[in-house]
Design brief:
With 308 residues, this protein is an all-alpha fold. 78% of the residues lie in helices and 0% in strands. The protein is flat, with a radius of gyration of 22 Å.
Length: 308
């Protein structure tokens, strides 16, 4: 009798174990909300590039890694804080904690690791101001914004404050100080976020209701109030866009391109506000996609203008 083929007989078990490990790593990665965290990293990069720093690749990559870890840590800790609410909403019910793929204790450990190491890495490889801004982002997002989501419909504006800090981190990485230009970047991202999230909150209003979150759209049967808020902040965005032109900070590329893309977003917000009730969902989706296109276009125009 020939001996059994051990390698062949054990292969399914090995493959199953390997697949399980890979699935868990995917779950841990998914908890960092990679698309949302990528927004923080991208705006940080543009804040750094607009500041026109001296070439320092070590500092640049440390900035990227530290910001990505801090943003991922904020996302994981937010999911840990809201996993019960996530389980009630259709679009979040399959997230790793409510689905049972990752335990709350594992998520807390993962979030604390990322949220601590990321800012400390910025201190080590960038500067103290960058670290303090990263910790301010985490505190604003987790200690202030997350609890207020269930208490006031103004949570969108409140949450836009920590969400607008990443480009400032990029700026101080280059200059180690907060100048007027850094606050301009903060204003752009703040105003953009509110119009962007007005569209999101309208399209997902039923989900937010299931989760018990106090969004403006839940007390807005027609969508007019959400639309008006989107118009207000899109108009403020356009006004902030004009500040560098008035201050003489920019050249002809920004002069031509930046007001156009911000005006386009304002037009989409106005159409969301003025649409018939039957057409409100469609115009909200169009505002959402316009906002998704606006930010990278705007940042590219700003950066190219700075270097030409």
């Amino acid at each position: 009798m020939s001996a059994p083929d051990v390698s062949t007989s054990s292969r399914p078990t090995t493959l199953t174990a390997e697949s399980t490990r890979r699935a868990r790593w995917r779950d841990f990665f998914e908890m960092t909300k990679p698309r949302l965290s990528l927004l923080s990293v991208i705006t940080t990069i543009f804040g750094y590039l607009v500041a026109r720093p001296e070439r320092n690749l070590a500092e640049f990559f440390t900035l990227l890694i530290g910001t990505a870890m801090a943003a991922g840590g904020a996302a994981v800790l937010n999911e840990w804080m809201e996993y019960r609410e996530d389980g009630l909403m259709r679009r979040t019910a399959n997230r790793p904690i409510p689905s049972g793929a990752i335990s709350p204790a594992e998520a807390l450990t993962w979030g604390l690791f990322l949220g601590t190491v990321g800012p400390l890495l910025l201190w080590w490889g960038v500067n103290l101001t960058a670290m303090l801004l990263a910790f301010a982002t985490l505190a604003g997002y987790l200690v202030v914004y997350t609890p207020l989501k269930k208490k006031t419909s103004w949570n969108t504006e409140i949450g836009a404050i920590p969400g607008a800090i990443p480009p400032m981190i990029g700026w101080v990485a280059a200059h180690n100080t907060l100048g007027a230009e850094a606050w301009y970047l903060f204003g752009i991202l703040f105003a953009w976020q509110v119009s962007h999230f007005m569209a999101i909150s309208w399209n997902y209003r039923e989900d937010y209701k299931r989760g018990g979150f106090r969004m403006l759209s839940l007390d807005d049967a027609t969508g007019r109030r959400s639309g008006l808020r989107a118009v207000l902040w899109a108009a403020i965005l356009l006004a902030i866009t004009l500040v560098p032109i008035a201050a003489g900070w920019t050249g002809w590329i920004y002069l031509i391109g930046a007001p156009v893309v911000s005006l386009w977003m304002l037009i989409r917000a106005i159409r969301f506000y003025t649409a018939p009730n039957a057409d409100r969902d469609r115009t909200a989706r169009r505002l959402f996609w316009a906002s998704i296109a606006h930010l990278p276009l705007f940042l590219i125009i700003l950066t190219v203008d700075c270097y030409l």
